Amino acid sequence: MRSFFSTLILLCFVFTAIKAENINKYEYGRISQEEADMKEYPKDKNAEAVVLFDLGKSFFRSSDEGLDVIYERTTKIKVLSEAGVKYAEILIPYYQEGNSREQVYDLEGTVYNYDDVKIHKIALTAANSYDEKINNYWMLKKVVMPDVKPGSIFEYKYKISSPFKFNLRDWEFQWKIPVIYSQYIVKMVPFYEYAWSFQGNTQTLERNSVADTYEHRIGPYTYKELIHDFSMTDIPAFNDEEFITSSNDYITKIDFQLAKVNHPSGGSTDVMTTWEKMNKELLDYPEFGKFITRAEKIGAKLPLITQLKGKSDEEKFNAVVDYVKDNYSWNEMTGKYISKSPANFVKEKTGNVADINLFTIGLLRSAGLKANPVLLSTRSHGKVKIDYPFMDAFNYVVIICEVGDKRVVADATERLTMNYRLPIRALNDVGLIVQKDKIEWLDLDIYTISTTTFHINTKLLDDDSLNSTVTYISTEYDALNSKAYFGSDVENIKKRFNSSIYSVVDSTVQTKHINSRGRPFAASFEMKGKPEIINNKIYINPFLDMTLSQNPLKQESRLYPIDMIYPDTDKYLCKLTIPDGWKVEHLPANKKISDDLFDLEYTVDLFDDKNISITLNYTFKHGVYPAETYADLKAFFEEMITKGNEKIVLAKK
């Protein structure tokens, strides 16, 4: 019996020691020898850095105006390589509206550098942080941890006091680097009810909810908190691969939305709405629906609208959208609400996306067309979850208009897009049409194929050099991308097409339609180069190294869709002329692939021993591919790369 109690007491000491060790492991200001000695993270040996712990807490505290939401965060990171140093820049967004704003305070930070003898501490100072305006509502505090290098450990903590109950912080468990431990504690009060949704593998989430025994007081009222504890361990890095909308759509996280306010004196107010109620409120809202009504009255007085009487719907639509695009400029601010009155917008001729597109809707209506706003979320903001009627899911508004017997979408912020196309940033799954007595979701996917075509005429000269003339033409979204990237900038054209063998001749570069709305982009230029010559044989890439050389899909598998935005066709048409004294020794084989996902066709024809025609056409038939097609898509890229880089071999006669 004495032996039993001795063993029991020993076990109690062991459990207590383990618990204390785990608490200390996530304690600010404590660096272990194991952390100092860490050279790589065993569970991800390629990791640039690793989050040792990330601890968050949100709770309510009494203030002069009732209750404020307090958010605390403490984070410690180990840097493992030079690439991991970038995580030493900390971004802390905070919100402001009217005369109210959130406050960031109690900011602390320390960098620990270990030199095999001792640990050197460098403290964060006020000089290491500054504030930056994002838009009219959001500010960003940027913090740069000092003297961070490979091997450093740094930690930081801060608090945010918020008067905005709707802004209970969400929590991302997953980073782009591994996370060893992440915990978020939320202490709820009975006056505010929140809906929450978890994105990720629920089997890896630990959740505990307990009622606090401590009684709090606000004015004459007392209450107890309900404490929710969410935690995860050994979270793998989020691999932000190519062809993705936003990490917000797939990263492991938990989101909160204010659903109901329970008034201490009795009664409650629903905050979490329905789509029907949201539409109605938006149409009656001064900074949304009422703005359209006022813009319509302004439009009725414009000479433009008077001149459109008797015109077709298509003529009216294009005239109005052209007018706004040509006379008003976008300040690159997103948002679903206007930032100024219609009169000020007309006077200043610049505004955010809501100013411009809601104003355009008013003008379209004054011209006799049926036009409505469409709320959506931009690609970088994440997809809208239609099962959750959350207003903050949206950050952008565009136009839908009935033109004759069809409906078209438009965005007057993007001057060079065709009038019935949205800019790429707005192509994100679905949008909600804001209209009376009807809930309708608009499919934002694009099914029209964009094309890019290369016409290449190459001659092999007597000195064994190559002289090529290239014509480059792109349409639809490819044209929009080309105009934005190339314009008439010779350096950008050289940057895109120069290679180790072939180079653009500066004086020959010409571009067309760079400022023409909706027209294809065209460029032409000459290229010169010296082909590879090995053992008196010439190796020529007919497409001058312009095709893809590396597969952008690098992982073994993928759990989320491959979002290429829009269907796309690339065409390479080459004519190669060889001089006397040379003959063709090797031509690549023809190839054809065609299925529901993509097409590829590669053909080679030899004419009169001097002229060779080589074509490569490939088409991605969909803008978005489901995850289960990843292996097929990856293999298709490999085939594209192989055929696009095969060489013609010439030998001396």
Report on the structure:
The chain is an alpha+beta fold and 653 residues long. It contains eleven helices and 38 strands. The strands form eight sheets. Strands 24, 25, 26, 27, 28, 32, 34, 35 and 36 form a nine-stranded mixed β-sheet that branches. β24 and β25 form a beta hairpin. The longest helix has 24 residues, at 2-25. The model is unreliable at 7-20 (pLDDT under 50).
The strand count comes to: 38
- For the terminal residues, how far apart are their CA atoms? 102 Å
How is the biggest beta sheet arranged?
A: 9 strands, mixed
Determine Rg (CA atoms, Å).
31 Å
- What value does the average pLDDT take? 91
Poorly predicted ranges: 7-20
Count of alpha/pi helices: 11
Decide which structural class fits the backbone: alpha+beta
Instruction: Estimate the helix proportion, in percent.
Output: 10-25%
- Shape type: globular
Strand content: 35-45%
Can you tag this structure with a few keywords?
eight-stranded mixed β-sheet; nine-stranded mixed β-sheet; alpha+beta; globular; 653 residues
Layout of helices and strands, plus pairs?
Layout: H1 2-25, H2 33-37, E1 49-63, E2 66-79, E3 89-97, E4 100-101, E5 103-114, E6 119-123, E7 129-133, E8 138-144, E9 153-162, E10 171-172, E11 179-188, E12 192-199, E13 206-218, E14 221-235, E15 253-262, E16 268-270, H3 275-284, H4 289-300, H5 303-307, H6 313-327, E17 329-330, H7 342-348, E18 350-351, H8 353-366, E19 371-376, E20 396-403, E21 406-410, E22 430-433, E23 440-443, E24 450-460, E25 466-474, H9 476-485, H10 490-497, E26 502-504, E27 510-512, E28 521-529, E29 532-534, E30 537-540, E31 562-563, E32 568-577, E33 582-586, E34 591-594, E35 598-607, E36 611-620, E37 624-625, H11 630-644, E38 648-652
Parallel strand pairs: 1-11, 17-18, 24-32
Antiparallel strand pairs: 1-2, 2-9, 3-4, 3-8, 5-6, 5-9, 7-8, 10-15, 11-14, 12-15, 13-14, 15-16, 19-20, 19-22, 20-21, 22-23, 24-25, 25-28, 26-28, 27-28, 29-30, 30-38, 31-37, 32-36, 33-38, 34-35, 35-36
Helix pairs in contact: 4-8, 6-8
